[in-house]
Design goal:
The chain has 2 domains: 10-47 and 137-191, no CATH class; 52-132, no CATH class. Helices cover 29% and strands 22% of the residues. The protein has 4 helices and 7 strands, in the order H-H-E-E-E-E-E-H-E-E-H. The protein has helices spanning 10-17, 24-45, 140-155, 182-191; strands spanning 52-58, 65-79, 91-94, 101-106, 126-132, 167-168, 174-175.
Length: 195
């Protein structure tokens, strides 16, 4: 099994566990935990720590600045409400010197303005195709937090950390507060998106 967008790997977890096991069933459990904990970190931080190519739709903004609903890394194509592609030199990605980006602003010198659709609709008419995510490669502290939570959840199979209130992820994996140690909690807090 491959771990889709896992924040660590089976091999890294085995090194972390100091396990030399070749048990395929055990490997499947570890991979399932890595995937569930990776998505759990996404849910807690409201971010993804991998790059994903997507096209997202937005309502016509009231001014020159289009606020985005997710972290943006690059723009491939920006399409106005009237179906016209806006060239790269006509807009800026904000903030200027850091990633991820949270807005696209038409330059003051641009001859473009945000447009309604041909049928005068303003809802979901601006299309942004690009690379979305907080970063393209998983940060080391996110990987470490993932590994710590996976290890603690894995240990529960053998009776450790069983006396706490639990959360069940969408994948059906149980994660308890004891699974999230102080380091992992501080990493989650550092990356949590402010709404």
């Amino acid at each position: 099994m491959t771990i889709p967008h896992g924040y660590t790997t089976l091999e890294a977890m085995k090194r972390y566990f100091r396990a030399a096991s070749t048990d395929a069933d055990d490997d499947t459990v570890i991979e399932g935990l890595v995937e569930a904990v990776s998505r759990y970190l996404d849910d807690l931080t409201l971010r993804t720590f991998y790059a994903r190519a997507e096209t997202r739709l937005f309502d016509l903004p009231p001014g020159r600045e289009l606020r985005l609903d997710d972290d943006l890394l690059t723009v491939t194509t920006l399409t106005n409400g009237d179906g016209v592609e806006i060239p790269v030199g006509q807009y800026l990605l904000l903030p200027a010197n850091v990633f991820p980006k949270y807005a696209i602003k038409l330059k003051a010198s641009s001859t473009y303005s945000w447009q309604l659709s041909a049928s005068a609709d303003w809802e979901q008419v601006i299309s942004v195709a690009g690379t979305w995510g907080y970063v393209a490669d998983t940060p080391k502290d996110i990987e470490e937090a993932c590994q710590q939570i996976v290890l603690n959840a894995y240990k529960r199979r053998f009776g450790d950390h069983v006396e706490a209130v639990a959360t069940v992820t969408a994948a059906g994996v149980v994660i308890t507060p004891k699974d999230i140690g102080p380091f992992s909690a501080s990493v989650i807090a550092r990356y949590k998106k402010r709404l």
